[in-house]
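name: query_chain
kind: protein
chains: 1
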Amino acid sequence: MINNSIRLVLAFVAVSVLSAQQASPLPTGPLAFAGFAGEFRADGTFSIAGPGWPAMKGTWKADGTQVTLVLAPPLANCAGEGRYQFRVADRRVTFDLVSDECMPRRMIVGGSTWRPADEKVIVPERRLVHTAAPKLAPLSAAPSAKGAWPSFRGLEATGVADGQNLPDTWDAKTGANVLWRTSIAGLAHSSPIVWGDRVFVTSAISERAATFKPGLYGDGDASDDRSRHRWMIYALDRKTGRIVWERAAAEGPPLNKRHIKSTYASATPATDGRVVVAWFGSQGVHAYDVNGTFRWKVDLGRVDMGAYDIPTYEWGPASSPIIWNGLVIVQCDTQADSFIVALDAATGAVKWKTERQELPSWGTPTVVTTPLGPELVTNASNFVRGYDPATGKERWRLGKSSKITAPTPFAADGLEVISSGRAPERPVFVVRPGATGDITPAAGATSSAGVAWSKTGRGSYMPTPVAYRGILYVLGNNGVFDAYDLQTGAEIYRQRAPHPGSGFSASPVIADDKIYLASEDGDMVVLAAGKEFKHIATNPMGELLMATPALSEGVMFVRSAQSVFAIGLRR
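structure:
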């Protein structure tokens, strides 16, 4: 009789558990995804909340492995239902989009994996894998650095090179003042660099006809191109544009995604006249000597850069390597872990590596020369930071930046300039060199012991500002063009560049009192530097422009979506 009673109890428990599982196929306890908290209750209600996003409440109903979500009350444009496939494993639930016209719900839920709120997040240790050529011969001495534009935005990222004597106008169709044009296969936003008689560019060549989406828009979607690629480095003859050598640094399917406006080769290479180094994100850092002989590569592992608050929105890397004093310096800020690393330019050996508590970032690090010695400056969301470039030791940090950072730090007239353009902060910081500790201005203040001045609401989103003869110029993606007194921050003018069209992603450069702005639509706008806004010319290139031009010994090298142009006077 007792055994029968036990059997009845066990049967009742089994039926109860089965009923609960059928009634609640989703985990019913508090869940977490990135900064979001969510709960799918057994009574068929759910809630999702996260900083900066509207709170969502409503009902859910499962049918097999598909769940339907309805908001109550609905948000604007969210009265309809959202449908998702789901799968549960180890108390985690993953949602894959079926259909949902509600943008905020779709952005948060689609592709997300929710874990129990009390589960500790464990970040796997990142391993850097180094591979070198079997026999590394000593590097040859670099040719003269005269006219060198060695990395993104030139020497120390200033974007300035006087003594060019460039024409005001040219014509890509007729060839007037176009010295040469060379087609480059693939898709890339990386900028050209120059040393001696070589121009270096990179590209990523897809098995399919890869594209990107230019323009002014807020979509955060990733490209669906996961086809096999070849990541290329090209060396061009600077006088003729002839391709002297090309190397496939990596081949295979992309290991990270890219934004629909980006490419798999958005980072600009760097050279010191001895080696040329390219970073292709999850495909690794690759080094060749300037004659095309392989030296080394370092696999940094998979790098995941994207929306800081919704990690399923993956955008890919864009920060470029730099070379300083025999060190290749790479800034790698990802969703899981962030660090900056220095590699030996000749061998690829790790010289130092500094961990950072950071959100994903896209700005290129810069070593600026100051009266107090060299300073490595990095732009990122939690803090702008200054380091000792020889050791990687942090010297100072500056908060109150944007949650998305892309412009590159640079120095001019004894000051360091850092900006970023995501609202609401959109700061411009002008920092005094030699700072130590936390130099963040106090609440309500715009300066501190280390900050000469700062502004909010005026920073650029993609283009890096440029300074020339005491004036700081800031170009917005939408073509708004500001000029400030570099020492004081006083506004000189606020204008709009002619023909903004799809906007500006490339950074401005300056030569001989002329400012050059490359628009996404393919126009090269020429403005006069100075306190008066003056439009000199607009030169259509006939191809989309996303990369920043390089200036070297009387020639402006312009990278378009399909080509490299050499612009200059025939001599």
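note: The helical segments are 2-23, 103-109.
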